[in-house]
From TrEMBL:
Keywords: Membrane, Transmembrane, Transmembrane helix
Name of the protein described by the UniProt record: Ancillary SecYEG translocon subunit/Cell division coordinator CpoB TPR domain-containing protein
Transmembrane segments: 53-74
Region described as Disordered: spans on this chain: 1-24
All residue ranges annotated as the Ancillary SecYEG translocon subunit/Cell division coordinator CpoB TPR domain in the record: 45-245
Length: 266
């Protein structure tokens, strides 16, 4: 019977043993070698591309500085615009003298709406001219058009309101269109007013709901004696939005006797 030699048995035993794990020192040495190699390559690349690295870093720093500066300047201008707009609004909301009643002591009072509008218009126009890129500057442009109309400056009002109506802010643009339609009515251009009211009804916004434009159009027809056209608009609005503000107003217009009935619902 053949028996294996001790050497063969030892070899076989060695073959069956698990591979010896790499000790911690060897692992650390390998990691260090990889780090040194990577760092060396990085330093060599930076050395070879030193000029482009400096230019790139400089450009990035310049962009960051510019963005920070622009942000600071815009914030300062926005704050200044807010203050100036608030001052203009105080004038626009100042009381108008009432015949037979004494003016309130310490409160600026204007003789009439036109006088007040003229005073406010100068302030709004100034805010719009100096801070036109800010939110309050854009709002001031709208109020400049509104106060120009109230002051009887028809051409200035029309030009200003048209500029706002063509802007990107649809909420503000629709307010300008509504004011422009009213200006057209006052100056005998009813056809242009009708066009604007229809545009507003077709593309409403939060500031000018469709019902607002429709009621304004119906009121214009009523003032012109076109009662049937006005009633048609009121009837459509009542059926479409029976429980809304517009529907309730339309119902009251159709039946004035019931105007003291249900209150307006939001």
């Amino acid at each position: 019977m053949l028996t294996s030699s001790p050497a063969a048995e030892s070899f076989a035993a060695t073959e069956k043993e698990e591979p010896r794990p790499v000790d911690q020192q060897t692992k650390a040495a390998l990691k260090q070698d990889n780090f040194i190699t990577t760092t060396s390559h990085g330093l060599e690349w930076a050395k070879e591309n030193r000029k482009s690295v400096i230019v790139t870093v400089s450009l990035l720093l310049a962009v960051i500085i510019i963005l920070v500066a622009v942000g600071v300047i815009y914030t300062q201008r926005s704050n200044a615009a807010e203050t100036a707009f608030g001052e203009a609004m105080q004038v626009y909301q100042a009381p108008v003298a009432i015949a037979g009643q004494p003016a309130m002591p310490g409160v600026k009072t204007y003789a009439n709406v036109a006088e007040r509008a003229t005073a406010a218009n100068k302030l709004f126009a100034n805010v719009a001219d100096h801070y036109g890129m800010t939110k309050d500057g854009k709002n001031a442009r709208y109020f400049a058009g509104l106060t120009a109309a109230e002051a009887g400056q028809t051409q200035t009002a029309e030009t200003t309101l048209k500029a706002v109506a063509d802007g990107f802010d649809k909420d503000l643009a629709n307010l300008a269109k509504l004011a422009l339609a009213d200006l057209y009515r006052q100056t005998g251009r009813d056809g242009q007013a009708v066009d604007l009211y229809n545009q507003l009804a077709a593309k409403p916004t939060n500031t000018v709901p469709a019902a607002t434009a429709q009621i304004a159009l119906a009121e214009m027809y009523t003032a012109e004696g076109k009662t049937e056209q006005a009633r048609k608009i009121y009837a459509q609005l009542k059926d479409k939005d029976a429980k809304g503000v517009g529907g309730v107003l339309a119902a009251q217009k159709l039946n004035p006797a019931a105007a003291t009935g249900p209150s307006l619902q939001q």
